[in-house]
Amino acid sequence: MEEDKLTALLAYFPVEERATLRESAAVYDAYLRKLPPATPRSGGEPWGILALNGASGAGQSFVIAYVRRLLAARGITLPRIYLLATREPRPGEGDRNPYIFVEEVEDGFRDRFHPERLYRREEIYYAYVSRPGAANAILLEDMRRALREKMYLETVIPTLLHIRKTAIRGIPAWGEHLTIIYLAVPSGREWLYRLLQREPERLQEPAFRAGLLGRVRSSLEDMALAVREAIPAVFNRWGEGEKAAHDLLRAWGLL
C-alpha cells in the first residue's frame, strides 16, 4: 500500500482527525505485536461455534468467501449464524448478505426484505449494540442448532466473550465449544487504507466520516480485548485471501 494513496484519502478529514487516524494506526500496530499467531488444532466435537472477528476493513467477508469455496471442494458445509442488524444495508449488501437486515418494532424485529417476517423477542437468544447506532441480535434457533452441528458466527469480541462465559436462555456458556479467531491486517496503515477506500466517494460527507471514526475506535477497543484474552490471529495479507482462508480453517480444526 503506497503512502500517497492513504494520504489522499486522509485529505478528506480535518487536520486533527487525520492525526487521530494516524495515531490509531500506530495503536493497531502495537496491539498486533501482542496477538498470538493462530496454530492448527484438532477438530474436537462435531458441534459448536467457529467465530471470526477483526477490525472493520480487515476483509472478513472476503476471506469467508474463500473459506466456503475451499469447504465446498471438500464437500463440507458450514452453516452461518446470521445476525439480525438494524443498520441500513450498504451498497452491494442485501437479504442475508451479510446480515438479516431488520427494523426494530414494538413486538420485535421486522425483516426489511421480507416484511411479513417478524422475529419476536422470545425468538432472540441475545441482543446487543455492536457499536453506536448499530444494534444486533442472535436468534435462539441458531444457537440451539449449534448444539448439534458446527456453525459459523462473525461478530464483535465483547459479544463472543460474553456468550463464551455466560449461560443464556437455557443454553450453557459455550466455553471451549466456541473457537474465536482474530483476522488481522498486517499493519495499521494498511488497515486504515482498506477501511477508508471501501466507499471513497462518500468521504466528503461529514456524517460518513464521523461513522468511520466511530468504527476505528470500536475496532481498537475490540482489538484490546483480543490482546487481553490472547485470542489467536490469522493474517489477511494483501492479495493472499486464499492463504488466510487456509490458515483460518486449520485454526478452526476443519483442515
How is the topology of this model organized?
Layout: H1 3-10, H2 15-32, E1 48-54, H3 60-73, E2 84-85, E3 100-105, E4 108-111, E5 118-120, E6 124-131, E7 134-139, H4 140-145, E8 150-154, H5 157-165, E9 178-184, H6 188-196, H7 206-228, E10 233-235, H8 241-252
Parallel strand pairs: 1-8, 1-9, 2-3, 9-10
Antiparallel strand pairs: 2-7, 3-4, 4-5, 6-7
Helix pairs in contact: 1-6, 2-6, 2-7, 3-8
Task: Give an account of the 3D structure.
The longest helix is centred in the C-terminal third of the chain and has 23 residues, at 206-228. The chain is α/β, with parallel strands linked by helices and 255 residues long. The chain has eight helices and ten strands. Strands 5-4-3-2-7-6 form a six-stranded mixed beta sheet. The chain has a four-stranded parallel beta sheet with strand order 8-1-9-10, sandwiched between helices. α1 packs across α6 and α3 (60-73) packs across α8. β6 and β7 form a beta hairpin. The mean pLDDT is 94. The chain has two domains: 3-80 and 146-252, P-loop containing nucleotide triphosphate hydrolases (Rossmann fold), CATH 3.40.50.300; 82-144, Guanylate Kinase phosphate binding domain, CATH 3.30.63.
Structure at a glance:
This protein has 255 residues and is of the alpha/beta class. It contains eight helices and ten strands.
Overall domain count: 2
Q: Can you identify the CATH superfamily of the largest domain?
A: P-loop containing nucleotide triphosphate hydrolases
| Structural class estimated from helices and strands | alpha/beta
* Radius of gyration over all CA atoms, rounded: 18 Å
Distance between the termini: 31 Å
The largest beta-sheet arranges its strands as 5-4-3-2-7-6
- Let me know the average pLDDT: 94
* Order of helix and strand elements from N to C terminus: HHEHEEEEEEHEHEHHEH
Mind describing the biggest β-sheet?
6 strands, mixed
